[in-house]
Amino acid sequence: MEPWLSSLQTATAQEGFELALKLSRMGVKYTQPSAEARDRLRPQYAEDAGALIASSQVVAINFQTVAAANNYWRG
Fold it and tell me: What is the mean pLDDT for each group of 10 consecutive residues in the chain (75 residues)?
């Protein structure tokens, strides 16, 4: 894969959250590089509350990482 992450630094918390989402999506992409397989599995987890909660937890952990890297956007 081509490099895509140049920094965890963002100007705002909103940008940081969007980066956390991208980190989460890219984690799935690296884990399962087959787009066909991801597309085939998506309907199964789209209706699974536990899987959606787990996905949200991954995003939250990534957001914690980005927030810490940005000193929690405090001066």
Answer: 91 96 97 97 95 97 97 77
